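User: Can you predict the 3D structure for this chain?
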Amino acid sequence: MKKSALQIARATYQPKLPKALKGPMALQEGAPTQSVADQAEIQKLFPNTYGMPVLSFVASNETKTFPAINAGVILSGGQAPGGHNVIAGLFDGLKKMNKDSKLYGFLLGPGGLVDHKYIELTADIIDEYRNTGGFDIIGSGRTKLETKEQFDKGLQILNQLNIKALVIIGGDDSNTNACVLAEYYKAINAGIQVIGCPKTIDGDLKNEMIETSFGFDTACKVYSEVIGNIQRDCNSAKKYWHFIKLMGRSASHIALECALQTQPNIAIISEEVEAKQMTLDDVVNYIAGIVAARAAEGNNFGTVLIPEGLIEFIPAMKKLIAELNDFLAHNAEAFAQVEKAEQINYIAKNLSAENAAVYTSLPEGVARQLSLDRDPHGNVQVSLIETEKLLGEMVGRRLAEMKKAGQYNGKFSTQYHFFGYEGRCAAPSNFDADYCYSLGYTAAMLIGEGKTGYMSSVRNTTQPAEEWIAGGVPVTMMMNMERRHGEMKPVIQKALVKLDGTPFKTLAAAREQWAKETCYMYPGPIQYFGPSEVCDQTTVTLQLEQNGK
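Assistant: Here is the predicted structure, written as structure tokens:
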């Protein structure tokens, strides 16, 4: 297969590792932990994996010997840049402990474990995928591991291949499932360790021990490059308002990071909309006010960043969607029999009066999108809701009213964009290449120490990689109880944008100037070769969170 010049050059890149992982190491244990909320319920559900300590690897003079071990790896959920390097780090770590260790990859996600579809990952295969984007080495999938039948079917192939450890690379739901699997295998003394790795470009799998999920850095840099390009075009033509929707269903980390990198005229942050109890009209009026103010200065152009999940954070919409999710979860078969033309009326009749009023006030297209097929977790597929067009059209109508009232005298033309898949499989930045390799290597070391129910953790990431702290965090520590499919379930708590955090405060302090003036920044493409300050920088979010500047 023919390769590009960049592919060939990147294949030779050697990811950096924390100092403690480079030679003999010892394991330091912290104090016992507890879940972030609902401690009694979580402990009851996870009696074998609850309360374990946080772990850190430190350099040591003692050399250990490890037996050969067979391990399995699964890529779960949506793609994120750097996944291949997690697998490469895992492979190299296993081989460093014992050259006779083997790694098996289960194909197309957790379904590969259940259906017994796998390949052995050899050095020749691994070397083809080092520092590359995508998940194509073994593919990914969204099968949820949650039933005893699935666990037992998986155990059959694990025993057949003499696999003693399984690494699940995924987001909050995938790692929740990994923890449930770890608990089950421990309860039945199956002799199988389960380790998770924190993946999601959305950035909402993070806490004090997981500073960032892998892929977030690269994806935001990819989106910011394109936003910068659009802003340069916007400032050149001076005739369009660009409404740009960005991935981030459950949190606005991507929109916030891209705003900090590009300085658009408007960046909507879902968490702020919710905190201020803003209505859809409030959001529209906010945007229209800025459009009118810029028009008064002769600037009939601008950029608006919109998080994918905005609709769910508008309080009235959030209530509606929660009831809609519950109703459709329990009445899926009946709803499937309703004629398409009658679906909206059928739903409205079965909602509370308050939510029915909101539902019937929506444009028909949006109302219909809210009732489309659920995602695997039984929720509305917000990525299918064209929020950018909804806002653009509503702002256009509001400006027309303002023009009649003499409050606006400008031209309003729109362009719409949704950046999502473009960022999920990019060649990882140097940060993600290093971070992911370290996560995989750390997972191997956790396996060597006989641990289960842990997530691989690499901290202190704004410092040079030499100073990173590798270890493990119990997955139960991150859990709380949430309603899924109409039932309360244990899940990893999502990390939302903190409105009292330095990244958001930085945006809030600058946005009035960005709205009025044209302060666009143009980050350009990811740089892989050159000065460290250009090639190895972390996200602005991480710098502000860790260093406060």
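The chain has a mean pLDDT of 95. The two ends are 45 Å apart (CA to CA).
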